[in-house]
Amino acid sequence: MLEAPTGVSARGLGTGRTHAFVPIWVQKDFRRLDDLRGRGLLDHPGPPIRAYWFVGWVLERKITDKFMLGVELFHQTPNVIGAMESMGFSR
Fold first, then answer.
1. pLDDT recorded at residue 82
2. pLDDT tens for the chain, residues 1 to 91
3. Which member of 32, 49, 63, 84 has the lowest number of beta carbons within 10 Å of its beta carbon?
4. Cα–Cα distance between 40 and 54 in angstroms, integer?
5. Do 61 and 91 touch, CB atoms closer than 8 A?
6. Contacts of 27 (CB under 8 A, 6+ apart)
7. How far apart, in whole angstroms, are the C-alpha atoms of residue 22 and residue 40?
8. Cα 58 vs. chain centroid, distance in angstroms?
9. Are 36 and 57 in contact (CB under 8 A)?
10. Strands 52-64 and 19-30
């Protein structure tokens, strides 16, 4: 994915540079259970924003033909110089 610079960076609307996201995702289906895992590198040229990794895992369970329940875990390395790594989940 390429993100084109459409905002005016002097007004705080983006960085004024093109950014790239290169993900790799793998999915395995087990009848009523789906397992998705992946990672990607987001490339942000130039400070203060820097390139960072995003890693995720999703597990979904098919309850009925129209309803699935799932959980997602993710981790991101710092995207700004001096920032901390982040982890989280969603349901």
1. 83
2. 888 888 787 787 777 778 888 889 999 999 899 999 999 988 876 667 788 899 999 999 999 989 999 999 999 999 888 889 999 988 7
3. 84
4. 5
5. no
6. 34, 35, 36, 37
7. 5
8. 12
9. yes
10. unpaired
